[in-house]
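quick one
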Amino acid sequence: MFGIGLNNLIKIGFRVSDHILKQQEIERSRTASEKARLQAEASREKTIEENSRYRRTMLEDEIARASVAVECPNCGSTGNRIRRGSTGFCQFCGTAIQISQSGTAFIADPIAKERALAEEEIRRKGGEQVNV
Ligand SMILES: [Zn+2]
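structure w/ zinc ion:
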């Protein structure tokens, strides 16, 4: 007869299937924890995305609140929006338009125009906004 009896063969068989089951269980838990990790990551990314969208909206609201629709004192066009207390340029005729804190538009004085030009130059170069 063989060295290994039927009983032993069955025992080994159980042990092997037991081992396979354990492996499958580990694999399942790995998959589950990996899934949980990916879900957590996705939810984190979603939160970051939502936060940045919220901040963007807040910023847009802030700009909209702070700026006024301006009728150009020079050419009369109405498509310009300029921040209160700042100087902007008419997008049609290029006139420098100064907006008071109360929202009144008038043709900018030469100093305000130079300052606005310098600020725009700085913005175009991507630098920090500085006081000129
Ligand atoms: Zn104009």
